[in-house]
Amino acid sequence: MTTLYESETVHLSVIIPAYNERERLVPYMTEITGYLGRRAKPYEVLVVDDGSHDGTAALVEQFRTKEPAVRLLRLAQNTGKGCAVRTGMQVARGEFQLMADADGATPIQELERLEAAIGTGADIAIGSRFLASRDRGYTVKARWHRSVLGNTFNWIVQRLGIPGISDTQCGFKLFRKTVARDLFGAALVAGYGFDLELLYVAQRRGYRIAEVPVNWADQPGSKVRVLQDGLRMLLDLFAVRRNYANGRYEPSSTEAVTHVPRLT
Known about the structure:
This protein is α/β, with parallel strands linked by helices. The chain has a single domain, classed as Alpha-Beta Complex (Spore Coat Polysaccharide Biosynthesis Protein SpsA, Chain A), CATH 3.90.550.10. It has nine helices and nine strands. The protein has helices at about 25-35, 55-65, 80-90, 110-120, 130-135, 145-160, 175-185, 195-205, 225-245; strands spanning about 10-20, 45-50, 70-75, 95-100, 125-130, 140, 170-175, 210-215, 215. The strands form two sheets. It has a seven-stranded mixed β-sheet with strand order 3-2-1-4-7-5-8, with helices on both faces. The protein has a two-stranded parallel sheet with strand order 6-9. Helix 6 (about 145-160) packs parallel to helix 9 (about 225-245).
């Protein structure tokens, strides 16, 4: 196994936001470390505990006694998925940085498809359930109402300022390190709408975004309330459009310093 302790250069960082994920996190961490451990490339897995109160942090600490490539960041209170991912990206060392949902809905092996897109010139590669659902070579297992509402949501999003992307919300996205630093350094949205903000700003900064079909399976225990959170994300997108128009995403030589919790 090649971990971050055996090399100063980390090839891949995997950032996993986790809020009360004690029941779902260990199987996915096991899958990730097993898969990445078989590759001859140094890696790290950063789990960002977003103020959990179910013992998630203790579970990660226990897991990392056997897998030292796993690290833990703890946020004092629940701040939102966007803030948790941003916190992880701020300390990630990998030349490539993958955000992945704690439920393991997207198998870690799908990383190879995203890496292939980066290898052919993309700056950001994002998993897409929509594209996969239209290709017989992939499997997408989603509850029908989530599929219908999700497709409607993305249809609206494309017309509100993020054209050409059919699935903005799949929680499996790979960034070049420099691109992640740029986008997450400018990000303001703390909740689920952070994906929309990243893609909106990325398109306007000229980054090359590749949408890649991936296998995906809906997992029990989702914390996303499809209708309520979908409406909240659309409101976030309106705020992002307003922020962009007001110059709030313009690069600054005096970026605000955000407190980053200690990495263990």
